[in-house]
Amino acid sequence: MGKIDDMVALARDLPLDDLALRLGQQELVAGLGLYALSSPALDLVLMEACRVAALGLQTEFAKVLRPRPAEGDLLVVAGIGWKPGVVGVATVKATDDTSEGHMLKTGEPMISPDIDQETRFHYPAFLTDNGVKAVANVIIIGGKDRPPFGILQIDSRTPRQFTDDDTAFLSSYANLLAAAVDRLRVIGEMRNGEARLRLALEGGMLGSWDFDLVSGNATRTPRYDEIFGYPGPPPPWSYETFLDHVLPEDREHVASRFRQAVDTRAEWHFECRIHRASDGEVRWIEARGKPDGGEGNHPPTHLLGIVADITERKH
Questions:
Q1: pTM higher than 0.85, yes or no?
Q2: Which residues 6+ apart lie within 8 Å of 117 measured at CB?
Q3: Rounded-to-10 torsion of CA 43, 64, 170, 132
Q4: Which of 67, 76, 167, 288 has CB atoms 3.0–4.6 Å from 109's, for a disulfide?
């Protein structure tokens, strides 16, 4: 974070109308962009955005608010400079008589240079309790076809007319936050999907595997190795290892199904008998899968499949 901190120091020491401040703000946006797109935790990104945005505009406070449609309000989920009892607790009504509620509907930046003189909106008590006099809001957009993620808000203890440059700076920050939010959402969905798949495989007593046609190596789940008789640390695995477990009478049938899958990109489904490594017992398995990777005329690069022990069903 050293680069960001250097730019923050520059922003703190320069007057607001100095061109160097604007250049420093651009550096801050770039620095936050790198941090936001690499950080694994959304709460850290939001807190850092509040910290740097407040210092970049020389204000005492900043916060991120998230809509809660069921409650009809916005919750302060991150912030800097606030007294205890604000972040994670304070809310603002999402109604037309609040700048936040109005902004959620319009999507346009909302500025209140002096909330004591404001006639358009009402402001919550926690702002005045913290001595806030001026407010600037920008929207944090959601992903494609998604509602806004929330609002980035800058608060000042002195009346202040935020300029177009100020709101452009905040909007750049908000866009970075939107990108970070969407990235972390996708990662979260992937992890949840993988977790659901793992539970489904385990619940169905299925083993899964991924055979890399380029390297010749394969990765498997623990259940896959159990089916083939490896309760402990599994040995290196390959396509040939798989075929070595298949009974000779079934081996050509299995090999032909894999050759057909690679040549035609067709899915496979077969049953065969294997020797289990731990005790040599013959077991029936059912295998399903499909080729993956490769584009156009290029051959697939992976074979993905699931395996189930169906010995009892066969008996």
A1: no
A2: 159
A3: -130
A4: 167
